[in-house]
Design a protein that fits this description.
The protein is of the alpha/beta class. It has 2 domains: 4-8 and 296-431, Beta Barrel (Lyase, Ornithine Decarboxylase, Chain A, domain 1), CATH 2.40.37.10; 103-287, TIM Barrel. The protein is built from 13 helices and 21 strands. The protein binds pyridoxal-5'-phosphate. Pyridoxal-5'-phosphate binds at residues 58, 60-61, 79, 81, 102, 199, 202, 236-238, 288-292, 387.
């Protein structure tokens, strides 16, 4: 559920008219709903209610400082994948002691920084990495808290680029050798074994892969608790969101109207499914949601520049490109597209390709999709753009990064101004 809806025939985020924001701040623009983010966090927290648990928001999904600050205020911990993300958490007022550090390629500088800041745990992805963390910690005269990421070899049934829990993926340590890895790590002088972690993939829309993974790994967590006194078991993130239909799924009525077998996974079902298995471990349970918290809490606004009628197709060319939102090009991601002005009964529908200005054939937001007509000059919204949207934006084609705006009730605040050409050029000009 989320707080984007039509009101007085105009698309709103909470109480703010998005057309007003597009006029005032220009396009492309990312707009996030603070109350949607809070609501998602609280619903997950409540759903996990009766077990000892912690939420480690996956910073990589949306790392704007103001978004992180919102989650700091909710009491969230953070799952980070770089020293840069740790810096962001600290700048946002977050507690390094509630951070877990994931990723297959941690550098010496990042490990030293994380040890200095006393993070909660390194989630290590190989024995080689643990050996290196041991060396660095030894040089600093400290003990490093470590968990291994286990690769449970289950099929998450999601897009191949966001599936991470199969043996052929680069992530984690194979289930078959994980106990030996713990035994060897336990012998290292500067390592404290603190937990066990897994993360099988992203945008999972059914419960079954989660259950399969948790049932397979929970007994291992138990064993490791007995042998090494580990204190937590992190089950990762990956809970999917509704990309289609995104707008309708904002309302509770949509969810109650879905037939049981077609109903997308809710956070309550997710918790109800995994909690009974996890309870038996007696460990502190961590979850690392990214997309679930912020995905449907953001949209990207863009304006139509031209309509181009080719012999085979109609193109609507907009002022946002794949450099601003790469999900469709990178992993065939779907974003619903709606005009800011609510389509009426008289609005026609045309099958169109919505494309950006970037010089790549992959620079499209949809192909042959039936959309309500909108004309050059009109602004539209790409929904469900709060996760893996702005964070993946680049300066390709020398295009500045879009503005980011956070809406809270009737307030709208620019939380990152649009990047100017002067910003982009400064360091290069200095080198001329
Ligand atoms: C990306 C990532 C997450 C978050 O995934 P979502 O699908 O956005 O919930 C959690 N844990 C790890 C280790 C990750 O790499």
């Amino acid at each position: 559920m989320h707080s984007f809806h039509y009101q007085n025939a105009s698309l709103h985020c909470e109480d703010v008219d998005l057309a007003t924001l597009a006029d005032a701040h220009g396009t492309p623009a990312y707009v996030y709903s603070a109350n949607t983010i809070r609501d998602h966090y609280r619903r997950l927290d409540q759903a996990l209610g009766d077990i000892d648990h912690g939420i480690e928001y996956a910073v990589k999904a949306n790392s704007n400082l103001s978004v992180l600050k919102l989650l700091v205020e909710e009491g969230s911990g953070f799952d980070i994948v770089s020293g840069g993300e740790l810096r962001r958490v600290i700048e946002a007022g977050g507690d390094a002691g509630k951070c877990t550090f994931a990723g297959v390629g941690k550098t010496r500088e990042e490990i030293e920084y994380a040890l200095r800041e006393q993070i909660y745990c390194f989630n290590a992805e190989s024995e080689e990495e643990v050996a290196f963390i041991n060396t660095v910690a030894g040089e600093m005269g400290v003990k490093a808290p470590v968990a291994f990421r286990v690769n449970p070899n289950v099929d998450a049934k999601t897009h191949k680029y966001i599936s991470t829990g199969k043996s052929e993926n680069k992530f984690g340590v194979d289930f078959e050798v994980i106990e030996d890895a713990y035994a060897r790590a336990a012998a290292l002088p500067n390592i404290t074994l603190r937990g066990l972690q897994m993360h099988i993939g992203s945008q999972l829309t059914s419960l079954q892969p989660f259950i399969e993974a948790v049932e397979k790994v929970a007994p291992l967590a138990n064993k490791l608790k007995e042998s090494y006194g580990i204190e937590f078991f992190s089950i990762g993130g990956g809970v999917g969101i509704v990309y289609d239909p995104a707008l309708e799924s904002g309302k509770p009525e949509w969810w109650s109207g879905q037939e049981e077998e077609h109903k997308p996974l809710t956070i309550e079902q997710y918790a109800a499914g995994v909690v009974p298995v996890l309870k038996k471990t007696g460990l502190k349970i961590l979850v690392e949601p990214g997309r679930y918290i912020v995905g449907n809490a953001g949209v990207m606004l863009t304006r139509c520049l031209y309509e181009k009628k080719g012999s085979a197709k109609t193109f609507r060319i907009v002022d946002a490109g794949m450099n601003d939102l790469i999900r469709p090009a990178l992993y065939e991601g779907h974003h619903d597209i709606v005009p800011l002005k609510e389509p009426g009964a008289e609005t026609g529908v045309t099958a169109v390709d919505v494309v950006g200005p970037v010089c790549e054939t992959g620079d499209f937001f949809c192909q042959n999709r039936e959309l309500p007509n909108f004309a050059p000059g009109e602004a539209i919204a790409l929904l469900s753009a709060g996760a893996y949207g702005f964070v993946m934006a680049s300066n390709y084609n020398s295009r500045g990064l879009p503005v980011e705006i956070l809406v809270d009730g009737s307030e709208a605040k620019v939380i990152r101004p649009r990047q100017t050409m002067d910003d982009i050029l400064a360091s290069e000009k200095a080198a001329l």
